[in-house]
Each structure stands twice: as C-alpha cells, then as structure tokens.
Amino acid sequence: MQSSPNMLTKFESKSSRAKGIAFHPKRPWILVSLHSSTIQLWDYRMGTLIDRFEEHDGPVRGVDFHPTQPLFVSGGDDYKIKVWNYQTRRCLFTLNGHLDYVRTVFFHPELPWILSASDDQTIRIWNWQNRSLICPHLGYLRPAKEALRPTSISFEDQMARANPNQADMFGNTDAIVKFVLEGHDRGVNWVSFHPELPLIVSAGDDRLIKLWRMSDTKAWEVDTCRGHFQNASACLFHPHQDLILSVGEDKTIRVWDLNKRTSVQSFKRDLDRFWVIAAHPEMNLFAAGHDTGVMVFKLERERPASAIHQNQLFYITKEKHVKSYDFVKNEESQSLLSLRKLGSPWVPPRTLSYNPAERAILVTSPADSGTYELIHLPRDATGAVEPTDVKRGQATSAVFVARNRFAVFNPASQQVDIKDLSNSTTKTIKPPAGTTDIYFGGAGCLLFITPTTVVLFDIQQKKQLAEVTVSGVKYVAWSNDGLYCALLSKHNVTIVTKTLEQVSTLHETIRIKSATWDDAGVLIYSTLNHVKYSLLNGDNGIIRTLDQTVYLIDPTEYRFKLALVKRNYDEMLQIIKTSSLVGQSIISYLQKKGYPEIALQFVQDPQTRFDLALECGNLDVAIEMAKELDRPNFWTRLGAEALAHGNHQTVEMAYQKQRNFDKLSFLYLSTGDQDKLSRMAKIASHRGDFTSRFQNAVYRGDIEDRIEMFKEVDLYPLAYLTAKSHGLTEEAESILEAVGLTEDQITLPSLEQPLKVAHPIVPTFKAAWPVKAAGHSSFEKALLGEVGAVDEEAAADGFDFEDDEQETTLAKETLDDDEEDASGWDMGDDVNVEEDVDFVNVESTEAGAGSSEADLWARNSPLAADHVAAGSFDTAMQLLNRQVGAVHFAPLKPRFLEVFKASKTYLPATVGLPPLVNYVRRTTEETDSRKLLPIIPRDLETVATVDLQEGYTAMRSNKLEDGVRIFKGILHTLLVNTVSSEAEVAQAQKIIATAREYILAMTIELERRTLPTEGQDNLKRSLELSAYFTIPKLEVAHRQLALMAAMKLAFANKNYNSALGFASRMLANGGSAKLLEQAKKIKAQCERNPSDAIDIDFDQFAEFDICAASHTPIFSGSPFVTDPFTGAKYHPQYKGSVDRIAEVTEIGAPASGLRLFVPGQF
Amino acid sequence: MDPFSAEGELLNIHTAFHSGQYQSVLDFETAALSPENQLPARVLKLRAQIALGQTSEVLAAVSSEEDTPDLAAVKALAQLVAGDADAAEQLAQDLAENYPENSSVQFLAGTVLQAQGRSEEALALLGKHQGSLEAVALIVQIHLQQNRTDLALKEVQAAKRWAQDSLLVNIAESWVGLRVGGEKYQSAFYVYEELASAPSTSAPLSIVGQAVAELHLGRLPEAEAALSAALEKYPEDSELIANSIVLNVLAGKPSADLESKLQQVQPSHALLADIQEKSDFFDTAAAKYAPKVSS
After folding, report:
1. What pTM was estimated for this model as a whole?
2. What interface predicted TM-score (ipTM) does this complex get?
3. Which compartments is it annotated to reside in (chain A) (predicted)?
C-alpha cells in the first residue's frame, strides 16, 4: 500500500458538510449541495464562488448539471426536486411527489428526463419539459437492507442493458427489477456503473467496496476491495483508466486497481469524513465532498516530463513512452523507449533531463518517495523498447549538470550527490537548509530552490556563487542562450540573469503554469487561462486566451507575431506552412495591424475571407467568396469595390447577379458596349418594363424604338414629338394619322437640335481599365513561390552585362554546350595504365601506430590531392606526372601549400611543448585508419559556384588578364582536388574544358591587343586574331561579345565579307536586341559588297581549332597534339613543351588521365 | 589525501591552471593553504607565469631556491621556454637522475626532455609517477606526438579508472579523441565546449579546443564563430591565429594577414615552420621535372 504525500489538489472550498457534487461538462464549474440547504456554484479554476441557490429546506443531497442547457436539478430532504436556470439564477419549477428524502437526482443524457431516487423506496422518472411524472412508481425493492440509497450515473443504461428488447417500455409499463445484487452485509451507500463495461461498483457500511459483473441473464460479485476502516460512503469508476475511486467516513480517498483489486493510492484528510465523490466527464479531475467543504483534485500530474535540446523536444507520453519531436521537420518520432517499469504503474514520471553528449535521459518519478533512472536512448527510434541498461536510485530530483555528471537530490537526507554515468557518487554537496528542489544552473552549476530563496552553486568549486530572495519557486526556465533564467512560483515570474541578478518580476493573480523562452529573448508563459509574454524589462501582455491549461513547449504564434513585426516574411511563411495557426485572435490581430492580406491566408470562413479580400483589394478572392456566399449584400459590396478598382467585368458580374438592370445598362453605356446594351433593351422589352426600355433606347440613341415604345403605351404626343424633333417626318405623320389629328392642330414649342447621349470614345468594354494595383504583397508572392524567382532575377542582374534576355537563353545554350563538350572529351582513354601503378609506394618502416596520420593518407589514396595534404609533395608530383604529364610545378605551388595548410589543426596542450597536431579529415565519421582521408579545401562546388562565376564576370567586364589568372587558378585547383562521385568527375572535366576555352580566347584577344597598330602585317594579324577570338566555345553571351568586336574590326577595315560572316553568326545566336540591331545594320551594308579588303587566314566556313601556342588555325584533318590535362590542341611542333593553358603539363606527354575520385573511397 | 582531489584545497587553482586561466592562478589566494600545499601552489603559480611568458621573472624568483627540486624543475622549464634549451636539458637530466620520485620533477623535467626530443627518457621518468594526473597527461601527449594513439588511449583509460572526475583526464581524453576521430570528435567537442561556456574555465585554451573540434567535425561556420569571437578578445594568441589560418584556408578565404600576424607573434610556430619546410621541399621536388622541350 502506497500513500502519496502530496495529492494534486486544485481547489478547496470551506463550507458546511457537502453531500452532493456535480461537474459542469464544459466550464470549470462545480455545483456543491450542502447539508445546510445551500447549493453553491464554484469556479474551481479561479477559486471563486459564482453563485448560491437557497430555496431548499434542509439538506440537499443530489445535484446534476444538464449536459447542454443552462440548467441544473437538485433534490433534498424536503422531498422536493427543483430545476434551476443558473443564467437567470432562479428556480424554474419544483417537482413534488416523493414521500421521503430525495437522495440523488440526475438528468438523462439524451431524453428530457430527470431520474430521482428517494428514501420512499421509489425511483421516479420525470419529464422536465412538460413537468410530468413518466414512471410513477418504479418500485426498487431491496429486501433486508436497512439503509437504502440506490443510485446510478445512468439508470437508463442499466435498463437498456438489462432489457435490450424493451427499449420502449417506459411510458406504459413499470420498469422491471432485473437483478438483485446481494453481498454487502450492511447498508449500501452508493452504486455506480462502469462507463463502458458491464460492471458495477458499490460502497457500503460494511466498509467494503464491491465489484459486480453482469450479463444478459445474471449478475454476480467479482471481488471486494478491503481497506476502508469506516463506512464507505461513495465510489465510482475512473472515466478513462482502469481504476476505482472510493471515499469513506474514515477520512480517506482510496484508489484501487480495477483489474487487480489492489490499492494503488490513498489520501487521508485529518478531520473531515468524506461523503461523496464525483468525476469530471472528460478531464482528469475529481471532486470529493467532506464535512467542511469540497476538494477538487487530480490523480496524476498532466504536465508531461520533457526537455528541449536545440530543435528536439524529448517527452514522456501518458503511456510512458519516450518520444522526441523535431521542431524543424515538425514531426514526431516513433517511441524511443518504454518506461513501463519506471516507478509504479499509476504514477507518471515527473521530470526528464536530456544529455546530448551521451544521448541519455534522466527521468524522475515520485513513486516510492522519489526515484530516478538514467537511461541511454537508442540511436534510432524503433518503437517502444524496454531499456536494457538502466541505472537507478532514490531521489526526488535528478538533473544533468555536465556531459558526464548529474546531480540527484534527496530531500529526506538534505543531500545532493554528484554522480558519474556509472551512477557512482563522485561528490556530495550539502545544500542550504530547507532546499526543496534542484535545477540546472548553467555549466557546472546547480540552482537550489528553498522556500524563500534560490541559490546558485558552483559544483567544481563547491561554493555558493549567488543568492536571490524569491519565495515559492516551483519551476525554472533558462533562456536559449543561457544568459537569463525565469523563476516561476505560483503567482510570480522573476527573471534573473545567469548570476541571479534580478532583472524583472511580474505578478499574476491566476496561477502560472509554465514558461519558455523565445530565441529573441522574450519569455512566454502560460497561466491557467492565458498565454502571455514578458520582455526582459517586465513589459507583458496576453498572447492568447485558453480554454484548457496548456504547458508551453513551442511559442509558434508569438514567433509569428514577432516575424510580422520584423517583416520577416520568410519566417512567417515557414510558420504558416508548418503550423496550424488559427483562431479569431490572430485574424483580428492581423487586421488591426493592417495586414489583411496575410490574415487572408489563414481564414477558411467565406464571409471573413470576403471581408478581408475586399479590405486588401484582392478581387479574385472576393469574387470566389461572393460566388460561394451568393447573397445580394455581398454582390453589392463587391460591385462597389470593383467599381472603385475600375474592374468593370467584375462590376458587370455583380450587377448581373443582383439583376440590377438599370445599373447594368448604364455600365454598358459608359463602357461603350453597344451589343450588350441592345441586349439589355431586348431584355427590357421582354420584361415589359417600359421605363427600362426607354432608358436603354435613350442610351442607344435608338429613336425608332423609343417611338415604338411610346406608341405601345399610347403616349402618342411623346411619340410624335420624338419623331418630329428627330426629323422623322414620315413617322410623325403616321402617328398623327393614327390618332386622327393634323399638324395644324398641334402647337409645338420651338425646337432646338435634340440632345444626344454621349458615347465613350474608347471601347472600354473590350478590356478593363488599368486596374488598381492588385494587392499582392511580397508575402503572398512568397506563398505563391514567386519570391525565389525574383531573387534569381536579382542575382542575374548582378552581372553587369548589358542585356537581360541573354541570361535567360544562356541556360539553354549551356546545356547544348555541355553536350558538345562531353562528346569531344574522351581524353586519356587511349592510354591504358595499370591501376596499381597509381599507388606510389610511401616509404614507411611499419604500418599502423608510429606513423602519422598524414602518412596514412598518402598510403590510403592514389589521388594526388591526398598526397599533397599529407605533405608528401614528391609522390603527389609523381602521380600528377603519370596522370597528366605534369612537369612544370611552379604554378601549382600556391595550391599545394593551400591544401597542405588546411590539413592540420593545432591544439595547445602542455605548456612548454608544441601544440598537438591533429589531421583534418573529409571522412569525419571514419575511425578505421585504412580509410582516413584528408580534407581538400576548395571543393568542386566552390569552384563551380564561386571561381567560375568570377571568371565569367572578368570576361564580361573585359578584365582579361584577371580572367586568365582566375581560369588558370581553376585549372590548378581542380588538378589538385578530389570529388565524391563519377558524376562530379564529369562535372570537373567539363569545368576544365570551359576554363581551357576561356583561357584560349582571352589569350588570343590579349595578344591582339599587344600588337603594334602600324603596318599591314600587324593589321592582318589583328584581324585574324579577332576572328580566332570567336572560335573558342564560350558562353553565348560572351561569344557575342567576341563576334561583335571581330565584326566591328572587320567592318572598319573594309573586310565586309568577314564582317558579314560575324554578323550572320551573331544573328543566328540571337540575344540582346541592341547587339542584333547593330549586326543587322552591318549585315545589310556588307551584303552590298561582300568582299574582303585584306586577305586573312580565316575561313568562316571551315572546321578548325586554334593552336593554343601559335594562335593559328589547325584545320580538320591536319596533324595536331593535345595537352593531356587541359586537352588544348597544338601544332605538332609544340610537342614536348609546356602547355600554354595551365602551364603545368607537357604537351603530348603519355598520361593515364587525371584521377579525382576513387569509387568507394569518399 | 591528494590535494588536487575533489576535496582538496588545491582543486580550484589546479582547475584554473589546466583550463588555461593563468591569470586567475596568479591571483589565487594561497596564504590560507595548509603548509604542505604551499609549495605545490607556488609551483603552479610559477608555471602559470611561464605560460604567460614571464620567464625572466620566474627565473629570478627561483634563483635563490634551486635546492628545492620542485623549484629547480620550474627553472628548467623556464629556461626551456626562454630559449635556453641546452641549459634546461642539462638541468632536467640532473634532476631526473637525482629526484626521480618528485612529481614536479617528473612532470617538468619530463616536459623539457620531451621538448628536446628525448621522448624515451621522458617516458621513463614519467613512468615512475604515483597517481600524478599531470604525469599521465604528459605521457598521453608524448604518445600522441609519437603517433602512438593506441598507447595514449590505454593510458587514458587506465587513468579514468581511478580519476574519472578529473578535468585533466577529461582533457587528455579529448586529445586522444581528436586523434581517433569519428564519434570521439563529438565527445571532445563537448568537453571543450563545457570548459569554454563556463565563465570560470573559459580561456583561449578551451575556445581553441572547442573550435578545433568543430573544425574536425566539419562544422566550419561554428568554428569560425568561436574563433573570431575569441580572436577579438585575445588577438595575440598564437594558437588562435594558427587555427584561424587553417579555418580560412578551408573556407576558401584569404589567410595572408593572419599568417603575417602569426609571423609577428610567434615566428617559431609549427604552422609557419611546416609551411616553410614544405615550400622548400616543393622547390626541390619540382626541380626534378622539366619539359622535354623548353619553350
């Protein structure tokens, strides 16, 4: 038998003896009927007495709330049943009929019935709507029991269960006694049904709690719970768990295990006998009535034991499973562990402390007067596994204080033990007297909580660092950066620094439940009914009102508001996408703050959406919603708004929907839509609406129709006048004729020219007016995924080349180019060198220990870059020589040193000795010495995204010397590098080819620029070089530049044929209109005289490459040599000299091909 | 009782020394210590002075007390750090022969011998220690410098059995961890992070340790944050500069400024020496190659 010292009492009232209790199903209210004839209505959350009802005479024993109506019923020793309305605060009516004390009264959950049980040995069923007695004498016969106090939560249930085929028996027949349960030796005080199972529990003066089971045919006693040592007054089943609760005159509340019928817990009160117990229908709440009032209590804590580490929340579920939740991914893990065996079965764990270094948790449980367990979490969540290696001990609090230490606190011995991970005590600390709890206090420190103070204690130095006087601290919440700490007591939040200097304090009248810190250093805390925030200076406010108590874990909504204030749209977007932010409060907040377009994103309700859409001028949404709602009011508003926007199509639709013909006609008039106007006229005549027809006729200037209409309504004078004034004499005469008059008989006023309706000059109806800017905020764009695109454009604009259109075609062209490159680049395959040859033997006496990691690297890898990192430059050179015929290493020196420099870190150790050298690996997860490999700075990605772009920029901005240097740097970086896949090898080769082409092009142009301007030969060479400049495979935009330069030079020197060729190529390439314009002009001019003044060695129709050394053409079919690394082509006479592109390798040298990747190595 | 143990009076000064808080060691109030702890405390203070580069003050302070082997050993270390390596080596050798049981001598003379490349003698001397964690740490470091990670690991694990709680053992374990790699990088990181985050133990030493561990874990932005913050505080710390150079190179950033700064602060630093050596090596190695045809 365990007894829990502190019961979780939520509320206590002081009054006379409480005999009846009822929870309100939704509100935090409890009805208490007293022995003194009063009925009290309490708000147990706020602890306030809402109302008192005093009309009964004598004790009131039974009360019940109606499940939905604002009603309750009471029954008392005055034989009366009263039905009350708690809103109007008065008794509606009284049901008379019982002949003795009324013990219990209940509303039927669905039917308009009240069931009552009385000492007159009857149970009666009343219809409270027509206030009649349905079942006048349902005799309830219990022989041989002197105290008869039968009751049940749902009497009708019993009946239904007992007589499944006689559901309609009430009204005609008396109910039938189905079973008589015999077993109690003395009077039975209370019986109760199980909410789902065919079970009954009863409490009697024989001090026993009995459990009964029933079937269709019989009922029998299952077991007895023994423990009360005085009369047991009441009992019930736990609504959600397999527990029985009972109270008795022995001043105890007892909790029993339904399955084992053993006592789980018991709570003792000093003086007061218990008389009644009730359970909240939904929440984990109970109420017990005793001699001096009522207490509302919980059986178990609902605050989940949890801990946050970075983006992960670790917590223990009600099933005692440890789970984690990733805030970033917004997903819950599978169960990591099952803690079923922790503590006792009905006691949930209290706290959880997480240690990321060891991936271990410390869990405390209040069972057995405080236990803790140290458990290592499994690496992957695989389901509820029982932990295997568990360390445990006695303590009420346990927290990690360091990577390999935790502190446990034992209040009985007033001692804090610092333990290592094997659970052995390494240190013992005597906390200040009266310490009630301990918390983490920052690295290596603890916070001791005493009833009046909080003490910061350094564990290493074993000394008190600071103390602050705050009374009754219950929880501690550290800010994410560890600089501030919030101390929570029942009604106060005190914010202190990490050295316990008080920053601010605030007071709440309602109980404070929990707190957490925002990244921005704002404290968010929850009370019983609000989520609030507090800034460091103590300014606070409400974020949200709550229906149920919330324990704070993540401050999403607040973050959202903060993001809004900072206009951090990305974050808001993130929040909207990942969280379910809803509720009127945020909408009105947004509306109030002037962000209706953002509020629009949250709302589903069409009407609100419509309002918001109008407010932010988002007509599309408004139309959509108006269609959905389809009510005149909304169309009117939509029409008005659309008119303001000049969006006449929408206006038209709105008018049509409202059948507002006048306005429609006028709209068509003003937009000049004659077709529709005549259609309106037809509609008008169809409707027989002459006014409308007249109006339309006026609008259309249709005189005949007007006259016709006047005639139809017998308004001949008007018809005549109209005809006359518009000069329709025949018509006028025919009218006269029809009415039998002659012109003489009529006197007409003198006429002026008739007024005509003005017609719009612009046919507006064909298209909307320039519409008021649609309310697309950047935020909405982000939602629509447009922001990314915008950013890219901005990025593209950053390159200072003049035209934007070309950028867009660029991507396509690159693809084309890539294909070309790939086909043209099967370099090195013809030379087959054995794999093994690549492994250069590194001299070393023995393997393993004794040689440095650098040596291992060289041994583990056939890649030159790894040898460079290892400092083994000579073997690296050997490798490069074999792979790509490298002979001239000087240009590679900076790269070699760069790679080498990044290979080691320096860790200071003993004073007087050099620092410990450690080797930086790219295989960070690896510990097998045969697989260790160095990190190589400037990986392929950096080259592709940074260096290559720099090179392009140099090209665009015409800084060719820089460009050559940059592209050479790229070649050198790639030559001494590693990649992680075959795909990357291909990418690297592509970049090498690109760099080669640019270097070639740039050097050609640079040579041209150094030529002296005089002399025919120089001019010829200059023209040739400018032509060759157009040959290398540059990006299209860049090739256009080359072509432009060549075209202009050729044109200026009257080489019209060449210029024509360049111009045609430019036009074929497409792109910037400005460039093309020039090309077109020149082309047109050249076509008149397509001949060259100076004969140059350039045939625009022939296939040829440019020799990288001589910058002369190598026509296809002529012999050439290539460079093994860059693939540049040369005339045969350059074989054996150093490549002009990268300046490292020997032209035409035998080579096995550059290796950047070894499968399975990275 | 071991004065450095959790219950001992010297715990705090010891912790301060090994977490690199040399100024706090000097500021430590020693008057109240029990007589038998006075000397060890003084040795620690002198060593802190050496660590701060005040070798001449140390030499002056111990000049009259060379009869005390502890102080003589301090002198040897001071000489070594001051650059008088030969004298230091001679003195260390004498001390090692005459007072091999003195723990200060073991450690300090061992340091000097190791610095002079006499690792075997240093190990032999240190092997005589009786429960001195400093000796253990030095043994670990010597093994690591000899690239015998296996022996270093063994030494640490042995020490952990009797002194798991010791800061020094934790640090030595991190040294080994940074060699072993894999998951041990993370453990080492936690040790240094813990030191660096606690105000009482935060110092360039611990920040460098933290940043180095981050570097090895491949977390460059974090390493950069730690190093650049520390460099602002301690712009002259050579290890901070050296590791920042490594970081910048890894991150593809220029490092020339830092290199010249290091040249200025500590021209003898291993990084600079290595680069110089490799630069020469490169030239020699590259000279072996030449194109068939010179252009």
Report:
1. 0.58
2. 0.92
3. Cytoplasm; Golgi apparatus membrane; Cytoplasmic vesicle, COPI-coated vesicle membrane
